[in-house]
Amino acid sequence: MPAPTSAAGRIDGRIDIVVHLGFAVLMVASAVRYVMRHSPVDNLWTVALAAAVCALYAATAVLAHRGNAGRTVPWMVALLAAWAALVVAAPSFAWCSFAIFFLARTAFTGVAAYMAGGATAAATAVGLFRMSGWTDVAMLLGPLAAGALLTLTYDKIERDAALQRRLAEEVTRAQEQLTATERAAGIAAERERVSREIHDTVTQGLASSLLLLEAAQRSWPEADAREDVAKATGLLRRNLADTRSLVHELSAPGLESGPLAEAVEHAARQHVDNVRFQVTGDPLPVPPELRHALIRVTQSAVANIKLHSDAGHASVTLGYLPEAVTLDVYDDGRGFDPAAVPPPSETGGYGLRAMRQRMEQLGGQLSVESAPGEGTIIAAQLPLQGTGFQPKETP
Q1: Side-chain half-sphere of 172: how many Cα atoms within 13 Å?
Q2: Structure pTM?
Q3: CA dist., res. 34 & res. 24, Å (int)
Q4: 198 with 246: CB under 8 angstroms?
Q5: Which of 12, 135, 141, 162 has a Cα at 20 to 30 A from 180?
């Protein structure tokens, strides 16, 4: 198994290193203490058994680190047997029980882990009780109580670690779901935006061109027919330019620079030549996203006048207020019932919805006042505050 790379894995790795180093230091110290307190005859066998315990400990630790549970079990069993014999024969090595306990919990899981920890504590208790001459009960009960305390503490740590892993996994899944949701929402918003752009430019322009060509066909070869064909040709050329603009980041001519009034008037006269245009208030700089929305709303509203209203007169008014910019489009045509507008379909019906969405996305409002036979007023208002623009105070 590769070395752990997560933060928790690095911490576990450092703890293992500390435990192993502690075992080595305690084994050396215990061996020195035993050799200094016992005869050479006793030293020979005890030191040999201690060396065997060290070798078994090193092999078990390496296998446990690699995660090879099947091969770790027999080595751990052999280590526990050798360790029990060592600590009973030479209680001076009892201090190394802590490292043996932690290694057993690393190598085993479930009931086997509890049995290995209990065997370590029992062997240590027997060794210390024997060292006291079988008289000091504290020497017997102390290691058992310490083993129970270590077991409970280790279990608590393992439960907390498992809970943290589950929480981390849940957070990761939630983040992935959120990313997928945001991606889907972004795709849907982009589709809606592109559909509005196409409706307000290409679709409206093509519809107006079709009307002009049909009128020219009815009156051909009169002079009016030639004029209608020329207008249709101009509209188609502008549609081609708009389509190319949509392909290139959906930027419209005159959108990023030039006076807003000129851009709005130009957009209005694309569909109705005799539209009356006026500006009220003192012109103010308008952010690009607001300019874009006002131009598109103008195109869509005036195209609807051309296609549906049969109006004799139409007007567009661009107004500047201290903290907002307004747009009013009026015609004296046949009018309609705003509450009875059919939902969007393949045959149309996107205009009012697209205009309202443009305004609402920028914090503005769009209202429609109309009735059958009484003309139509489309009023839009966009706030200049909150868009990065702060109007200057006049002295």
Answers
A1: 6
A2: 0.43
A3: 15
A4: yes
A5: 162
Kindly report, residue by residue over 365-393, the tens digit of the pLDDT: 999 999 898 899 999 999 987 554 444 43
- Integer angstrom CA distances of residue 148 from 34, 92, 95, 136: 28, 22, 16, 20
| Radius of gyration, CA atoms only, the chain | 43
pLDDT (tens digit, 9 = 90+) per residue, 15-65?
778 878 878 888 888 888 877 877 776 677 888 888 888 888 888 888 877
